[in-house]
Amino acid sequence: MNVQTKPAEDAVAIVAELGRRAKGAAVALRTAGTDAKNRALSEAARLIRHQKAAILAANAKDIAAAQAAGMTAALQDRLLLTDSRVDAMARGLDDIVALPDPVGAKIEEWTRPNGLVISRVRVPIGVIGVIYEARPNVTADAGALCIKSGNVVVLRGGSDSFHSSRAIVELLRRALATSGLPEDCVQLVPTTDRAAVGEMLRAMDWLDLIVPRGGRSLIDRVTEESRVPVLRHYDGICHVYVDRDADVAMARDLVANAKMRRVSVCGAAETLLIDRAALDTHLMPVLARLHELGCEVRGDGEVQKRDAKALAATEKDWRMEYLAPVISVATVDGVDGAIRHIATYGSQHTETIVTNNAATAERFLGEVDSAIVMHNASTQFADGAEFGLGAEIGISTNRMHARGPVGLVELTTYKNIVRGKGTLRP
Amino acid sequence: MNVQTKPAEDAVAIVAELGRRAKGAAVALRTAGTDAKNRALSEAARLIRHQKAAILAANAKDIAAAQAAGMTAALQDRLLLTDSRVDAMARGLDDIVALPDPVGAKIEEWTRPNGLVISRVRVPIGVIGVIYEARPNVTADAGALCIKSGNVVVLRGGSDSFHSSRAIVELLRRALATSGLPEDCVQLVPTTDRAAVGEMLRAMDWLDLIVPRGGRSLIDRVTEESRVPVLRHYDGICHVYVDRDADVAMARDLVANAKMRRVSVCGAAETLLIDRAALDTHLMPVLARLHELGCEVRGDGEVQKRDAKALAATEKDWRMEYLAPVISVATVDGVDGAIRHIATYGSQHTETIVTNNAATAERFLGEVDSAIVMHNASTQFADGAEFGLGAEIGISTNRMHARGPVGLVELTTYKNIVRGKGTLRP
């Protein structure tokens, strides 16, 4: 089925066929029991462990092509599958088996004066398109999350990971078939032609949601072109605000964790906001720890006055998602100033306040309009597993449907069920 | 502020200015207390009653223009405001005052093993654009629903109702100002230039949601052009399935109510599905009542064989939203056939089954994938007030965010609040 080399004009036909198959599979998956879905996922985990050699061989082809094309070492590492990474992928599927099935759960139920009983019950969204870049483990993760939540998925991996993704998808499909579910519950777009993405973005007649996972240019293209609803993850320009009423040691440790635990995750802090009233008490202990950890500091005038190592921050720095050991530091006038700075420069992802003043904390939590707002907690907790959702398909910076970590529950919608006794509307 | 006559090239500047003002108002409204919002709505109701003459005078201008342009009597009636219609508009605002404020409600809360307390709390969506056609009462309804749910709203009424809408918006803005809220919480697009709609549909930087209310061509344009998320109401091709185990009298009364109570509402039944096993027992009592009520019947061969008055239905009839005293009638093979027919021809709005067989009912409720599914209840209950939501801004046939009636709660989203004790991620 290597149709990678088919000409561009076939993208229309290829995507139409994906749609036909996806719609065909959707009814069975939507109404499938938890047992059947879990059997398929457990079998997929077993096959992935059992067929590890085949997956690694497919991955070796991708790596060879990447090397030939001069891919950077960092990107090659993202693409590389190893024995332990394949094991982790299989464990990820087992973890999803263990999670509760959201489908069929009653969200609420009420009775009307005329006797009608109305309930809202979770149902799958339908058919989801996941468009992602190099990392091949997304293939298994996204596939499994969609299966468990009753959603048919069409995966469009990066061209760099095409062979790896195809090997993994084939195992998922085999597992579905042996569990009595349609193998078309999971499909991989069988071409790396970019025109196929364009077709998916216009496939309103069969695609209910697009989840792009990747860099800014992918997200921008999807946002610009898509007629299908998009669950999006834009920048994570996360802020830590250190208030005058913060404990100094807590501020020092929390900023260090938020910035430096892992600098490449979307929940990593990018800007430190320091209360003007805390400049002489809190700033230097916090910055000293960051310098110890090898973090570059770019500060405003107040910060540079106090920290000889600080570089000058420019307006551009307040809008930067460094994803690197660099932090921008701005002086603000108390919690109001912090709220204003975040409203101006933030990306509505995750922000935290460090303070022992409960009233100040509540103002921050109430007024900062981000997907995740925290008090005395590290921004690095912005993660589905850390939230207790189990696996996540990503973090949503949308305002509609789901905000923050998107797990199984967030991959469902609801229907309204109305039960009467021959009830007529007057 | 009559800028109706400004040239098209000003649409960009006009919409940018609307955006600037909307963003400015959003922070205050988002964090406004219930009391302030209710005061504004009560004052708006009072002003609408008190300034009835001014509203009717503005409406008279719209009606005169409509008559001069040769508008049909039906559309003129939709546009016309009368003493009692203005009173109803004011009562509508009072009703919204009485509804609970959804903002700030805790949806759920849980504690993680590390002590983090995570809660999901309802917050306004932000800035909502409502694009609607002739009916001027939408101006007050949509404006009030948005205010109460903490959302800034930009209203784009039909050009036919421009003067009426402007008169109503001016009273809403005056009421906001006297209640200490920014008057820009409600704005009317001050031009009837269609280019302004195009600008709104691209206003991703300040508009969080577009709600189109109107005919198919409006919805289609918005769907095609919008980069902003859309809460959409497509067709209501609603089905009643009469099962072999239905009570004959219940089927007769329920079909009559679903079809004929009001034929012009989106929840009106358009297609009757009759179980092949009920053809000889249930069909004629049901059709006889429909004929008595003046309903035209378009049936398949089995129906025509039994009902001499039935016209022949064509394939096109299964996809028709008549919104008229006409019903299509198809014979299906039991509940499975009904489910298949609805999957093929339905619009995922509202469908009902009439049966006394609980197992059959559960299959229908489980497998029919519509926003609203009913058992022994009239499809005409597809309505926010009938659901007990109070007022509604419309019915959503989206799959994401909200399905079915969209009231105050559905006009909110949530934020994730995380409370720690200096908690660091390991």
How would you describe this protein?
2 copies of one chain form a homodimer. By secondary structure, chain A is of the alpha/beta class. Chain A folds into 2 domains: 8-232 and 407-416, 3-Layer(aba) Sandwich (Aldehyde Dehydrogenase, Chain A, domain 1); 238-386, 3-Layer(aba) Sandwich (Aldehyde Dehydrogenase, Chain A, domain 2). Chain A is built from 15 helices and 16 strands. Chain A has helices at residues 11-30, 34-50, 52-68, 73-79, 83-98, 137-148, 162-178, 194-201, 216-225, 248-260, 283-292, 301-306, 334-345, 358-367, 384-387; strands at 106-111, 117-124, 127-132, 152-156, 186-188, 209-213, 238-242, 269-275, 296-299, 311-312, 326-332, 350-354, 372-377, 394-396, 404-406, 412-423. In chain A, strands 10-9-11-8-7-12-13 form a 7-stranded parallel sheet, sandwiched between helices. Chain A has a 4-stranded parallel sheet with strand order 5-4-3-6, sandwiched between helices. In chain A, strands 1-2-16 form a 3-stranded antiparallel sheet, with no helix packed on it. In chain A, strand 1 (106-111) and strand 2 form a beta hairpin. In chain A, helix 2 (34-50) packs antiparallel against helix 5, helix 3 packs antiparallel against helix 7 and helix 5 (83-98) packs parallel to helix 6. Chain A is globular, with a radius of gyration of 24 Å. In chain A, 53% of the residues are buried. Residues 1-5 of chain A have low confidence and may be disordered. Strand 16 of chain A pairs parallel with strand 13 of chain B.
